[in-house]
Design a protein that fits this description.
alpha/beta, 7-stranded mixed sheet, 7 helices, 7 strands, oxidoreductase, NAD(P)H-dependent oxidoreductase, CE1759_FMN_reduct, NAD(P)H-dep_FMN_reductase
């Protein structure tokens, strides 16, 4: 059984630095997972820009459209998530937040998440800790220790390779969280897989 990784990228321009970072993280994660699990890896990328109108409709009507439903289904089946957002007003973008706002409760329970963000200046790097990490903790996901921030200067021709090193480290942590368990099924915990015996439940009363 293959390992399924979904990349959610909320870049608004085309091309965007957010998508560039998402692709970098996706490639490093694919490489790391192949080394750790030895199993095939399926990598799906969800661009939120084309889903802007379906997301707004979902917020108003409560019903997702076809493209949005398909995106949510991919997230539901994923063993791991890579989530990348541009920074607006010192936080994640509204489009990024809308996507996670309309998710069904419990969809990300126990899912390892690699968080990343882009901005024009490194002054916004703390958005990973004060905005993204609390968001995914609230959603009961499992954020990896290393989050990746990229400022405009990190993509320059004279960049010193620090961004690539951070991306490799974060991807390695994501692969380690999944580990060989993905070879036999989803990394998400099945609450019915190991039920407490009824007699034990009675004994607690």
């Amino acid at each position: 059984m293959s390992t399924r990784v979904v990349v959610v990228t909320a870049g608004l321009s085309n091309p965007s630095s957010t998508r560039v970072l998402a692709d970098l993280l996706g490639q490093h994660t694919l490489d790391a997972l192949t080394r750790v699990t030895g199993e095939p890896v399926e990598l799906d990328v969800i661009e939120l820009r084309p889903l802007a109108r379906p997301l707004a409709d979902r917020m108003v009507t409560g019903f997702p459209s076809g493209d949005l439903s398909e995106a949510m289904e991919k997230v539901a089946r994923a063993n791991a998530l890579i989530a990348v957002t541009p920074v607006f007003q010192a936080s994640y973008s509204g489009l990024f937040k809308m996507f996670f706002d309309v998710m069904e409760p419990g969809l990300l329970d126990g899912t390892p998440v690699l968080m990343a963000a882009t901005a024009g200046t490194a002054r916004h790097s703390l958005v990973l800790e004060h905005a993204l990490r609390p968001l995914f903790a609230h959603l009961k996901a499992v954020p990896v220790p290393t989050a990746v921030f990229a400022a405009t200067e990190d993509f320059g021709s004279d960049a010193d390779g620090a961004l690539d090193a951070r991306a490799r480290r974060a991807a390695g942590e994501l692969a380690a969280l999944l580990g060989p368990a993905t070879a036999t099924g989803s990394s998400k915990r099945d609450e019915f897989a190991d039920p407490t015996p009824f007699a034990e439940l009675l004994g607690r009363v």
